[in-house]
Amino acid sequence: MASLIQELITTLRAEEQLYQEMIPIAAKKTRVIIDNDLASLQQITDEEQVTVEKVNALERKREEVIVNIGTVINRKPETLTMKAIITLLENQPEEQKELTLIHDSLTNTINQLVELNKKNKSLIQQSLEMIEFNMNLIQSTRMSPGSTNYTKGASQFEMPAAQTGMFDAKQ
User: Residue 159, by phi and psi: left (phi above 0), alpha (psi -120 to 50) or beta?
Assistant: First the structure.
């Protein structure tokens, strides 16, 4: 079982390292979104995707190790959370401490990444809303009957009474 715990610790460390690498990428993505640099955004997204694929491979390995630990201790793998495994290691204080530290570090790193991703999602959403607003504005000005009145004789053009303003003061 000790080798399985060591393999779990090694896998979690590698996972945490990859998540650490993703934090500057997410921060860089924030800057690129703000600058509206679509080419750089595509490049960063591709870079991020490579790291996510590595994380997914480590996740599969971690799940496999947990299944093996469950087999050794005769417990269902779905009941073996990190906290449960840490509790099971009460007779192995070194491994217990090491697993606790990596678990806490991984949790903190993932929380930082989640916050950055929420911020990026919000910025992208705002950008999409602005684009939609601009498109609607352009479309409405094209459809407006008086939109071509900006000529020499525009001052002599008379708009019908119903279209003189945006707000109806009579309401």
Answer: beta
